[in-house]
Design goal:
Number of domains: 3
CATH class of the largest domain: Alpha Beta
Strand order of the largest sheet: 2-1-3-4-5
Largest sheet: 5 strands, parallel
CATH superfamily of the largest domain: Histidine kinase-like ATPase, C-terminal domain
CATH topology of the largest domain: Heat Shock Protein 90
Helix content: 40-55%
Number of strands: 12
Number of helices: 11
């Protein structure tokens, strides 16, 4: 067999006739092109059809124990054989017999004695029709599956949109109320200390709104072509320390210690800005989901040209069944300690790293907490 070519499944015919000479003549005419099964009994024919992948049955009408009509009725009443086309091969030539056979579901009649050339042509026509029918049925099945998948995707999108709108309202309501309320208080006589406090509350509310809007802009603004064009040599260890510096204030505010383990450095050809953005979101999530006094660890390892970054936290982790859903937008699997969120963080990371063609995953650690990892190829 040539490599790359699929083997063609042989077409199997079942020959049924109580006369051995008739079976021999049909076999001589068809054995070069088809795989043949044969029997002299209608009952045995039903058993063979149920136990073998039969594509077409050539069935005698007049048989002593069970007629062809009775055999065809049994075939049509059996789920495993009801689809198999049947050609009657018979000495009967009257219209009533042909009408009865067609009424039972036969696809053709061949009269005895038959011409072997005509037999081959009629069998070939029915095999072609059966293949065409199976092809159409397969297309219907595939199209139905595609429609079902599209419907499910549309339902998921609709549900996600509903969750997003509800989450957006819930998340924005408190800071907007604070901004409106404290700005109204500023219109009245206030002491300098009160003005400072009101200003701080307004500032904090604005920061919270910004933290909600930024992931939305990041998610909707990702452009795969731009990401791919902006590839350049990046020091992975320097990028890790850059991200840690960017999040130093967040870690200090959350009272979470961030440690880096990176004994060796590696260069990788990747978009520095987009990788930094993805890693920043992963580390930020790890800090926000970690309890005060805990540690977030960033570990850089290099093995056979594969550069792996792991971000390990000591938070609650994610149930194993929920990990795939964590990659989808607006899925809030758990609320960060003391923070609001829209469930976009890991979706932004997943979409960014997917555009960069970088493997990414989430794993619960045996000692507790979550490990987020990503892998890059080392530039040599």
């Amino acid at each position: 067999m040539l490599m790359g070519l699929e083997a063609v499944k042989p077409v199997t015919l079942l020959l049924v006739d109580d006369e051995p000479i008739n079976l021999m003549v049909m076999a001589n005419a068809l054995e070069d092109e088809y795989r043949l099964l044969s029997t002299r009994s209608g009952t045995e024919a039903v058993r063979l059809a149920r136990e073998n992948p039969v594509d077409l049955i050539l069935l005698d009408v007049m048989m002593p124990e069970q007629s062809g009509y009775q055999t065809l009725a049994q075939l049509r009443n059996c789920p495993e054989t009801s689809h198999i086309p049947v050609i009657f091969v018979t000495a009967l030539k009257d219209t009533a017999s042909e009408r009865e056979g067609i009424g039972l579901g036969a696809v053709d009649f061949i009269s005895k004695p038959f011409d072997m050339g005509v037999l081959r042509l009629r069998v070939a026509n029915q095999v072609e029709l059966a293949n065409y029918r199976r092809s159409l049925e397969q297309q219907v099945v595939e199209r139905s599956r595609e429609i079902t998948e599209l419907k499910l995707a549309a339902e998921r999108e609709s549900q996600a949109k509903t969750v997003f709108i509800r989450s957006l309202y819930d998340c924005l309501n408190n800071p907007l109320t604070a901004i409106i309320g404290f700005s109204q208080l500023l219109q009245y006589d206030s002491t300098p200390d009160e003005i400072i406090e009101y200003g701080k509350q307004i500032h904090d509310a604005g920061e919270l709104i910004s933290s909600l809007v930024d992931p939305m802009l990041s998610y909707t603004g990702l452009d795969n072509e731009v990401i791919c064009r902006e590839r350049g040599l990046t020091s992975v260890r320097d990028l890790i320390y850059e991200v840690v510096d960017l999040l130093a204030f967040v870690a200090q505010e959350r009272q979470v210690k961030v440690c880096v383990s990176a004994e060796s450095d590696a260069l990788s050809r990747v978009s520095h800005d987009y990788l930094r953005s993805a890693l920043r979101e992963v580390v930020r999530n790890a800090i926000l989901y970690s309890p005060a006094g805990s540690t977030v660890s960033l570990v850089l390892t290099i093995d056979s040209g594969t550069v792996r970054i792991e971000v390990r936290d000591q938070g609650p982790g994610i149930p194993l069944a929920d990990i795939p859903a964590a990659m989808f937008p607006f899925n809030r699997l758990g609320k960060p300690l003391g923070k609001e969120g829209l469930g976009l963080g890991l979706a932004v990371v997943h979409r960014t790293l997917d555009a960069l063609a970088l493997p990414f995953g989430l794993e619960n650690q045996a000692e507790g907490g979550l490990c987020c990892w990503m892998e890059l190829q080392q530039h040599r």
